[in-house]
Amino acid sequence: AVMRNAVAKGESARVEIVNCGKGGREYVLDIEIQPIRDEAGKLTGFMAIESDITDRVELREHIKRQEELLRETGEVAGVGGWEYDILTSSMTWNVVSRRLHEVDHDYVPTIQKAIAFYEPVCQPLIAAAFEQAILTGKSFDIELPLITKTGKKMWVRKVGRAEFKNGRPVRIFGAFQDITAYRIAKDAAESANRSKSEFLANM
After folding, report:
1. What's the pTM?
2. Could you tell me where the DSSP H helices lie in 78-122?
3. Which residue from 11, 136, 157, 199 puts its CA 20 to 30 A from 168's CA?
4. pLDDT tens for each residue of 115-156
């Protein structure tokens, strides 16, 4: 319908269509038409450009599914989602991330603001992780102490992954989780093991 209307009006148009090839395999075409006019401006025909964008569409859909899965599982498990657009230098937090940081729904995060939530002694670690991810696309998975906007102290796990385009990272995204209970249990277990080892050593 889009193409027919464009042709009828002598206008340009661009659409994506799904075709079925040999063996029943579906593939996606990006089709663009441009009107051709003579020197007097009279329409004489159309030029069509077709491109097979199957791989691009599959990648786009894969990323979309992964983001939806991350969002859905995050709401259930209390895991926040975040992303940083390298091209626009903009950061986004989902509802869970905002709730964990105890900020308002209209809070606008930045890398600098996000780093400032961590204990001062740990800020260089998260800053370096962000820098490497932005420059090289290197992933990170770190556990650090954090202080929320209201002053609540907690331990968090922050995971970051890169999305590449033409071999260069264009977006960093990942998860943010409160692991305070896990850290308390871990520290208690390690303390108990140390006490046991000291007791056995003095027997």
Report:
1. 0.59
2. 95-101, 111-116
3. 157
4. 999 999 999 999 999 999 999 999 999 999 999 999 999 999
